[in-house]
Write a structure and sequence with these properties.
With 183 residues, this protein is mostly helical. It has helices at 4-13, 16-37, 41-57, 69-89, 116-124, 128-138, 144-151, 155-182. It is built from eight helices and no strands. The radius of gyration is 19 Å and the shape is globular.
Length: 183
């Protein structure tokens, strides 16, 4: 099996075999990530395509820094493409701060029993703006200041959208657990 470093070296040289291996190895994971951010599969696929174009055109700017650095770099480029797609769509569903509920219902203690696939489905069902903020905060570990800058919103909107996303997810998890318990 070809190593990450060998893929990097081959792509840097323009080797089509290495480019194909890069795509085969990472496209599925990156598409799943795009679908966490973008509402339609076609939009996610477009963002992934645009990301791969940028990735393949930018190998001269990337310096391999050890195992995992290639995946981290291509993930960052792909997240940025998703954010760009969200910016262009302007369907972010920003909720004013005064429309946020006071309490966020905490999920029942059995949250660990909810399958990952179900949780990802619930995240995918969030409105686009909530989903973007939630993903950037939870999965990419960005601060609300960084998120606000990336999405072109203010910092309070970022934190309020995260708060609202958490509330919606908690409600969905609790409903799922109640339905499962009733069976």
């Amino acid at each position: 099996m070809i190593t990450e470093e060998e893929i990097y070296e081959g792509c840097r040289r323009g080797d089509d075999t290495a480019r194909k291996e890069l795509y085969v190895r990472y496209a599925g994971k990156l598409l799943a990530m795009c679908m966490r951010y973008l509402p339609e599969k076609e939009t996610a696929e477009d963002a992934l395509h645009d990301a791969f174009v940028k990735i393949l055109d930018s190998f001269g700017k990337f310096k391999y820094r050890g195992k995992g650095s290639l995946q981290a770099w291509i993930t960052k480029i792909t997240v940025n493409e998703c954010i760009e797609a969200l910016r262009h769509s302007r369907k972010q569903g920003i909720v004013p701060i005064d429309n946020i509920p006071e309490d966020v219902p905490e999920p029942d203690s059995d949250i660990d029993s909810v399958p990952e696939k179900v949780l990802l489905q619930f995240i995918g069902e969030l409105p686009p703006g909530y989903r973007a903020v939630f993903n950037l905060f939870v999965f990419e570990r960005k601060s609300h200041r960084e998120i606000a800058s990336m999405l072109g919103i203010n910092e309070k909107s970022s934190s309020s959208q995260f708060f609202r996303a958490r509330a919606m997810l908690s409600k969905k998890v609790n409903e799922y657990l109640k339905k499962r318990e009733a069976k």
